[in-house]
């Protein structure tokens, strides 16, 4: 059985002070939940205070991005070695990084390998744009992104990796994919690619999340799908009244 997994991606929201307030609103509703892995991914500047507040709660801390080199003359970047002091997870390949900052499949792969090498669990984002979806290219795009992102990743590491299927046309738009449609991409594209790269057994062990306008009102419908193991939650993770019910739905 794959343990449900819900990560809140705060994106470029919440100062350190605001992060403390938000967590004090969220944590009481999560305290009694069992059977679900929970991760909070704040901006870099809020990682330390968030990590301090989450210590001992069983809730993980994740970063939203990283550089693939452990150190060097890369002004403005943060490495996996630096993150590993405070984080257990890191988001890589988010569509906003790909679209706005020129992140390539090759760079995503470098980050995945660096994260694994330094003890971080990468949450690898894949997904097609609206144009690619309407052109019938979902299978082509998602297959390429999964294969490229995992290129050279050994079988003994793959079970720890988390993949998030996030159709770009559904992120922050309020236009979520249908639960059945998202499940079909995961069951019909992502897991078969994992099976080809590794084995069917390992493909079934990897947790695959859905992301894209997940809300309290639709989360349970996604989590009822056999191949959706949780969610990477964006805007709704910034509201306790949204995030807590989403995690509760994942916990079953």
Distance between the termini: 14 Å
User: By CATH's scheme, which homologous superfamily applies?
Assistant: Aldolase class I
Q: Indicate the CATH topology.
A: TIM Barrel
- Which regions contain 5 or more consecutive residues with pLDDT less than 50? none
Strand proportion: 5-15%
Class by SSE composition: alpha/beta
CATH architecture: Alpha-Beta Barrel
Q: Give me the side-by-side strand order of the main sheet.
A: 7-6-5-4-3-2-1-8
As a whole number of angstroms, the C-alpha radius of gyration is: 17 Å
Number of structurally distinct domains: 1
Q: Mean of residue pLDDT?
A: 96
How many strand elements? 8
| CATH class wording | Alpha Beta
User: What is the overall shape?
Assistant: globular
- The helix-strand sequence is EHEHEHEHHEHHHEHHEHEH
Count of DSSP helices?
A: 12
Main beta-sheet strand count, sense and barrel state? 8 strands, parallel
Estimated helix fraction:
40-55%
Describe the model:
There is one protein chain. The protein is α/β, with parallel strands linked by helices and 252 residues long. The chain has one domain: Alpha-Beta Barrel (TIM Barrel), CATH 3.20.20. It is built from twelve helices and eight strands.
Task: Summarize the structure in short.
The protein is an alpha/beta fold. The protein has helices spanning 16-30, 47-54, 80-83, 95-101, 105-117, 130-134, 138-149, 155-158, 179-197, 200-205, 219-223, 240-251; strands at 5-9, 37-41, 60-63, 89-92, 121-126, 162-165, 207-210, 230-233.
Features:
252 residues; alpha/beta; TIM Barrel; eight-stranded parallel sheet; 12 helices; 8 strands
